[in-house]
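Two quick folds needed for the group meeting slides. Do the first one here.
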Amino acid sequence: MLDIKFIRENPEAVRQGLRNKNAADVIDEILSLDEKRRSFIAQTEDLKAKKNQVSAQIPQMKKSGHDTAAVFAEMKRVGDEIAFLDGQLSDIEEKIDDILRHTPNLAHSSVPVGTSAAENVEVRRWLPEGFSFENEFKILDHTELGKKLSILDFERGTKISGSGFPLYTNKGATLERALINFMLDYHLQNHGYKEMMPPILVNRDSMKGTGQIPKMEEDMYFIEKDGLYPIPTAEVPITNIHRDEILAEKDLTIKYVGYSPCFRREAGSYGKESKGFLRVHQFNKVEMVKFSKPENSYDELEAMVNDAENILKALKIPYRILMLCTGDLSFSAAKCYDIETWSPAENKWLEASSCSNFEAFQARRANIRFRREETKKPEFVHTLNGSGLATSRLMVSLLENYQTPEGKVIVPEVLHKYTGFKIIG
């Protein structure tokens, strides 16, 4: 959530920032409401001061034999006016809060300005030794290959739950589990994260804290009877671990990693590419989350991207890094890198990870602060998260890049100890 004080002091900069994110200009409305809010606060404080002053005089008036009936009547009128103004103030603050919760974060100054994904900037790419974009044989796509090898069954997944709910079978299920365990172990052993296994159902406050609600509510599943949401990413429960807490400066940066299944309705996405893993409603993901001091957060973002890259280098999967332009940034992100892996069958790059710095946007919503040792004054932390990685599209690239002319799949060497087999065929 944006800081109302920052908006008040920098209205034109915020206005331009919202324009860069293709968001509605709500600055005039916010400033008008904020002016009314401050006026009501000033009036209320004046009336309360008057009431306190007179109240202190009443005992002396009684002692002197003065009639206090008129004074009590005036104090009742003042009390009623204070109650009315408090009600008006509450309504205005609720309106401001609602607008701010629907207003996106502003992009960092280093983010390229653009209106759509077409203006994202490729930062770098990494290709394994001997890799070529030219295929030496006809590559079966992951759905054909999965069916042929009896490792993926999208038809039965649809029968069980509906489209977008994959069924992993036999060595496909083992390979998926191997990927998850390998990525968790790699982050723990090489990148210094602490492992968390969070709940996969969260309450409304948790969704508000990370920015999914109210803006993206229609894209989420909801269990109405219990008021709980299946998580769209482990970012939600892991970030909310420290909601309404004040952290110690010495403990920052805090680095958590956790696995979870993820659930997304993706309302309005129908008609888009939806074959196999390319668009699913349930998928698995290993998530990295950081709580950082503001002055360190952009260094921590670069480190997080490198952590995700190291997974792909270990797996020897070709990938590229994109810096998202302002118009393609998510609602909460100030800066984001997408990591895309190569699909030979689709002949295109597929997003397998996003790494974002939210600065204080989520922390202000979730009230996550830290106390500096020198000043003892609480400040909002900066929160970051990144996929490390999502398995669905990573699985596409793995199956297709490790495919043999005979239609078998060679298992990446780093997964052998997790799978117990070296080839699927």
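Then this one, please, same format:
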Amino acid sequence: MTAQEILNKCSHLTVYQERDVDNDYVEVVFFSKDIAEWTTVLTEIFGEPLSPSGVAPTPEAVQLTKDYGGISAAQTLYKKDFPSGGILAMFWPWQDSVHTTLKIICL
């Protein structure tokens, strides 16, 4: 599975801004009010988050994300190993509480 294929599974959801979309990396912004819908789709794909929002990230989560901006307790990290390789997905809520960035990264 590619990053773009995962985003395609979210095509029924509203994207505020596409920043970067290709097979290995996706970065989009959506409205935070829709986070429950995005969470439902990503949980169906990845399973439960490796590092859920509101919980201090584990050392594994910190290590996995260090090259991609890191992870904090306010963010959510998913990870799954597919036959084609590992993929991360991260929710980064903005301080404005209106927007959230989604990054999907093929490892």
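Slide caption for protein two: Residues 3-106 form one domain.
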